[in-house]
Design a protein that fits this description.
Keywords: Heme, Iron, Metal-binding, Monooxygenase, Oxidoreductase. InterPro entries: Cyt_P450, Cyt_P450_CS, Cyt_P450_E_grp-I, Cyt_P450_sf, Cytochrome_P450_Monoox. Pfam families: p450. This is Cytochrome P450. The chain has 460 residues and is an alpha+beta fold. The protein has a single domain, classed as Cytochrome p450, CATH 1.10.630. The chain contains 16 helices and 13 strands. The strands form 5 sheets. The chain has a 4-stranded mixed beta sheet with strand order 3-4-9-6. It has a 3-stranded antiparallel beta sheet with strand order 5-13-10. A hairpin with a 4-residue loop joins strand 3 and strand 4. Helix 5 packs antiparallel against helix 6, helix 7 packs across helix 8 and helix 13 crosses helix 16. It starts with a strand and ends with a strand.
């Protein structure tokens, strides 16, 4: 596909008209974005009425601002999403609402000092060195699966930041496959729940997958929690230490072990899965655009003078930054944010009843034809185009918007830029002569099957 001569990477071809509830159920079984129809990319506000839920999709940017800024405190995170995430992260700072969220946020805020960009750079750099060594040691006489590699490096970075230790290959592989199983089971559970049907064991299987993820880092948390409360634990300079020291602003109580596991699970999931998704898609886009690879290598070499990429260099790598931003525009890792209507509300002449779901979709808003030129095309240079400055400011929201915007946005951008610049500097990437990857949207946006790329030594 091409749009005005620009490379247009794969996305589900939208249906010509709105699907029936039955067809929507079938297509939504594996992916949310496959339920969309052509008008979804041009409408300002749509509505769908399901057996258990009325939900509205808002693309009107003034409505988006109202819901996401939530100055009225009327649009908390919807209990439907929290129910899907509960086996994985419980009632954590991500899923809590109201006063509970405010108090949890106050408790975890000190932990995020450890994600200071300069402070965390050495951990990122060490993880990237390990990644490049892993790729060089692999059998590159055939294409390599990118998704597990990006999961490992992103999980390793946040692992070092939370626990001050490396994540081994076995743990990374367990996390990659377990989260894939979690998504594969929680998506059908969501559709069954929306249509008021029995869950058929899907939620139970999702719970088992979540337990497999917790098993990787649970022993570390348990050992340090026990040692800290027995007074035998050494003080570490990491996120887990901050959570151990946190106290409730009203009661002065510390987090229980279960609560620390919920917060750690949230930070770990948010800190690796979304970054891994974005970097996988960015490497695919690079593999399809060899001219861009050459331009980025020239930019890196000019800035570094041939030296290792340092913290001070990243600020000037505008081409790499624009690649990462355009990847997040086309393939936002979290493609839908869901909020609950807590009181009857009128929006665009529609009366939204209490309990309705309102959906803000970065996938739609960042591909909406009223917001962007050639919205489905891959054009990193658009982020320096004055004509698209307003869209970049108002219609670009891969990390959310408002008071609950992702606190790790800068962290994710820094690790993404460092990893992408390091890989493109070391290897020429090519996409094999196979079918293009197909994005599927569940909790996060991933390719249906793992992306495979050729990695050729650039200095050969």
């Amino acid at each position: 596909m091409s749009e005005d001569g620009l490379f247009t990477p794969p996305y589900p071809v939208p249906h010509k008209s709105k699907a029936s509830l039955f067809k929507r159920f079938l297509t939504g079984w594996n992916s949310w974005i496959h339920t969309l129809f052509d008008r979804s990319y041009g409408m300002q506000m749509g509505e769908i009425h399901l057996p258990r839920l009325d939900f509205y999709i808002a693309n009107d940017l003034s409505v988006v601002d109202r819901v996401m800024d939530d100055r009225e405190k009327a649009f908390p995170k919807h209990r439907f999403l929290n129910d899907l995430l509960d086996p994985l992260i419980g009632n954590s700072v991500f899923s809590a609402n109201g006063q509970d969220w405010e108090e949890q946020r106050e408790m975890v805020n000190p932990a995020f000092a450890h994600t200071n960009l300069k402070r965390v750079f050495p951990a990122m750099e060490a993880a990237v060195v390990d990644l490049l060594a892993t790729i060089r040691a692999m059998d590159r006489s055939k294409p390599i699966e990118v998704d597990p590699l990006m999961t490992h490096v992103a999980a390793d970075i946040i692992y070092r930041t939370i626990f001050s230790v490396k994540l081994d290959a076995e743990g990374a592989e367990q996390i990659y496959h377990a989260f894939h199983r979690y998504q594969k089971n929680v998506q059908p559970a969501a559709m069954l729940k929306l249509y008021a049907l029995p869950l058929l064991g899907y939620r139970r299987r999702a719970g088992k997958a979540a337990a497999a993820i917790h098993a990787v880092f649970g022993p570390i948390v348990k050992a340090r929690y026990t040692a800290w409360h027995e007074g035998t634990g050494a003080c570490r300079d990491d996120i887990l230490q901050s959570l151990l020291e946190a106290r409730h602003p009203r009661t002065g109580e510390p987090f229980s072990y279960a609560k620390i596991m919920e917060q750690v699970s949230t930070i770990f999931l948010a800190g690796h899965e979304t970054a891994a998704s974005a970097m996988t898609w960015a490497l695919y886009l690079l593999a399809e655009c060899p001219h861009l690879q050459d331009a980025l290598v020239a930019e890196v070499e000019k800035e570094t003078g041939g030296a290792p990429i340092g913290f001070e260099h990243l600020r000037s790598l505008n081409g790499v930054r624009n690649l990462f931003r355009e990847t997040l525009r086309l393939y936002p890792p979290v493609s839908f944010f869901v909020r609950e209507v807590t009181q009857p509300t009128t929006m665009r002449d529609k009366l939204l009843k209490k309990g309705a779901m309102i959906v803000i979709s970065p996938w739609l808003i960042q591909r909406h034809r009223d917001n962007w030129k050639c919205p489905h095309a891959f054009a990193p240079e658009r982020f320096e185009d004055p004509e698209e400055a307003e869209a970049c400011r108002r219609a670009y929201m891969p990390f959310g918007k408002g008071p609950r915007i992702c606190i790790g946005a800068g962290f994710a951008q820094q690790e993404g830029m460092l990893i992408l610049a390091s890989i493109v500097r070391a290897f020429r990437l090519r996409y094999p002569d196979i079918r293009k990857p197909e994005p599927v949207s569940r909790l996060t946006l991933r390719p249906r099957t793992a992306v495979k790329l050729w990695f050729e030594d650039r200095n050969r």
